[in-house]
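2024-03-11 09:14:02 INFO worker-7 job=invfold-0412 stage=load source=structure_tokens
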């Protein structure tokens, strides 16, 4: 049985994990795109992952992000601007394009993104991680997802 005390008071992070979705996505697309995008951050930015979980009976569970994931939405133009800012700041990022809705596997997903120049990517989602102030600047013009 885990007897670790739960710490009192809120924890404030100096970093932010954020997902920006294009506002015209269907509900199922929003969920799917968000899941794919955050998997990219979790796989390449090890500091975002916390410790494994364990319940009172000692059953173990996979670790998850150590901090909240904030989800935003915006127009196609907002997404394009955010992508450019994330690139200019060299923030860890993941992208999801409209082409990925027509592919069915990782190999074809990567080929679909590789086939399009950066400036022409038809983005429907972007995940970024970095210092709070930098991520806030990337997300300027976006609004919290309802």
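2024-03-11 09:14:09 INFO worker-7 stage=emit residues=146
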């Amino acid at each position: 049985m885990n007897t670790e005390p739960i710490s009192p008071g809120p924890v404030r992070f100096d970093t932010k994990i954020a997902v920006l979705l294009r506002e015209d996505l269907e509900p199922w697309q929003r969920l799917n795109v968000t899941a794919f995008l955050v998997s990219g951050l979790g796989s390449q930015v090890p500091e975002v992952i916390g410790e494994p979980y364990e319940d009172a009976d000692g059953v173990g569970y996979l670790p998850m992000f150590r901090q909240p994931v904030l989800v935003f939405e915006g127009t196609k133009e907002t997404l394009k601007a955010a992508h450019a800012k994330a690139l200019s700041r060299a923030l860890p990022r993941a992208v999801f394009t409209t082409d990925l809705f027509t592919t069915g596997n990782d190999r074809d997903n990567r080929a679909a993104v590789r086939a399009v120049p950066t400036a022409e990517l038809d983005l429907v989602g972007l995940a970024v991680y970095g210092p709070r102030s930098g991520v806030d600047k990337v997300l300027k013009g976006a609004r919290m997802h309802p």
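2024-03-11 09:14:09 INFO worker-7 stage=report msg="The CA atoms of residues 87 and 93 lie 8 Å apart."
2024-03-11 09:14:10 INFO worker-7 job finished
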